[in-house]
């Protein structure tokens, strides 16, 4: 019944299918997942990256910038002094740390917002959606189920087990943010079993990430800042440059981080060359 389909709100969920819907175009999936992109950078510049270094403060004078950080293994405090600092901390973290910014820049940082997106993965002992229902990849969308985007894996078809994306949406929906992991899991399995009655029997284990509650994220990707805000965030502030994806037009995409990096490198290079 086409009219029932059109009235269901289904069309509001049709996205990422044509250009101009907000994401990069065309969309690709890196083999092994999005994490392979930063790992590939790490392979090239690995020895210059200091892991386990929790930045506590960034302060600047006319001549230099000082960053203090805590070694998360030993608990020791360290500091680095440099001519400039390109600060790529997420805006949500930047709001919390001790950093010397002008009042205009501090206000701009405080104006940025963060998505409340959250995810839950469900490992199934059998790929029943493929074997029983003939579903290979794709998504299940329904407002009433309150699962956000529920997705079927588009990898390893016909293999033994599979991980469903059981929940991808606003972490505050159905009070999930305040629930225990078990409480979130109960919600997801109860709702998903309305479409897939096999899901409880085939369930093996789950993971859940509510980014707002992850200390070094304090939220999922940033919300896209308006033009005036972007212009402010993209300016150097004394000797500090903000270089995260949250300063540009695509905070929710790795492409946004790369755009911000190019912009910052070019601006800083021009300044350094002028002496
Ligand atoms: C649920 C979800 C799904 C996504 N899906 C996609 C996708 O499919 N495709 C895509 O292109 N993009 C996706 N993104 C967006 C992408 O991950 C971001 O746009 C991108 O990672 C932003 O890059 P960034 O370098 O600005 O920040 P981040 O990648 O967030 O890097 C910031 C770094 O700072 C570190 N940090 C935080 N606090 C401190 C501190 N005090 N001291 C030291 N280090 C600190 C963090 O640990 C992190 O490593 C997704 C994001 C989320 C949350």
Please estimate the helix content: 25-40%
What fold name stands as the CATH topology of the largest domain? FAD/NAD(P)-binding domain
Q: Give the H and E element order.
A: HHEEEEHEHEHEEEHHEHEH
- Tally of helical runs: 9
Span between N and C termini?
70 Å
How large a portion of the residues is in β-strands, by DSSP E?
15-25%
The main pleated sheet reads as: 4 strands, mixed
- CATH class identity of the largest domain: Alpha Beta
Helix/strand layout:
Blueprint: H1 2-7, H2 36-45, E1 53-60, E2 65-71, E3 77-82, E4 85-87, H3 91-94, E5 98-99, H4 103-111, E6 117-124, H5 128-131, E7 139-141, E8 149-151, E9 162-170, H6 181-192, H7 199-202, E10 203-210, H8 227-234, E11 240-242, H9 254-274
Parallel strand pairs: 1-5, 4-11
Antiparallel strand pairs: 1-2, 2-3, 6-9, 6-10, 7-8
Brief account:
The chain is α+β, with helices and mostly antiparallel strands. Helix content is about 30%, strand content about 20%.
Primary descriptors:
single chain, 275 residues, alpha+beta, FAD/NAD(P)-binding domain, Polyamine Oxidase, Chain A, domain 2, 3-stranded antiparallel β-sheet, 9 helices, binds flavin-adenine dinucleotide
Description:
- This protein is α+β, with helices and mostly antiparallel strands and 275 residues long.
- The chain contains nine helices and eleven strands.
- It folds into two domains: 133 residues, FAD/NAD(P)-binding domain; 99 residues, Polyamine Oxidase, Chain A, domain 2, CATH 3.90.660.
- The model has no long low-confidence stretch (mean pLDDT 92).
- Bound molecules: flavin-adenine dinucleotide (FAD).
- Flavin-adenine dinucleotide binds next to strand 1, strand 6 and helix 9.
């Amino acid at each position: 019944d086409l009219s029932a389909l059109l009235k269901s709100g289904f069309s509001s969920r049709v996205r990422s299918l044509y250009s101009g819907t907000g994401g990069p175009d065309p969309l690709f999936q890196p083999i092994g997942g999005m994490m392979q992109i930063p790992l590939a950078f790490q392979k090239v510049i690995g020895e210059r990256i200091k892991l386990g270094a929790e930045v506590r403060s960034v302060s600047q004078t006319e001549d230099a910038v000082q960053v203090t950080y805590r070694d998360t293994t030993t608990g020791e405090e360290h500091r680095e002094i440099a001519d400039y600092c390109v600060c790529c901390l997420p805006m949500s973290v930047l709001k919390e740390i001790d950093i010397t910014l002008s009042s205009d820049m501090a206000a701009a940082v405080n104006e940025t917002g963060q998505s409340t997106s959250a995810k839950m993965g469900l490992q199934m002992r059998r790929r029943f959606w493929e074997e029983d229902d003939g579903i290979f990849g794709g998504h299940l969308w329904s407002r009433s189920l309150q699962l956000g985007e529920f997705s079927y894996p588009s990898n390893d078809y016909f293999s033994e087990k599979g991980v469903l994306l059981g929940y991808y949406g606003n972490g505050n929906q159905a009070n999930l943010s305040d629930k225990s992991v078990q409480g979130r899991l109960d919600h997801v399995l109860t709702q998903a079993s309305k479409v897939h009655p096999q899901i409880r029997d085939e369930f093996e284990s789950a993971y859940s990430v509510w980014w707002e509650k992850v200390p070094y994220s304090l939220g999922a990707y940033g919300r896209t800042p308006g033009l005036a805000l972007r212009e402010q965030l993209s300016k150097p502030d004394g000797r500090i440059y903000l270089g995260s994806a949250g300063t540009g037009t695509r905070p929710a995409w790795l492409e946004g981080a790369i755009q911000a990096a190019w912009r910052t490198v070019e601006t800083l290079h021009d300044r350094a060359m002028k002496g």
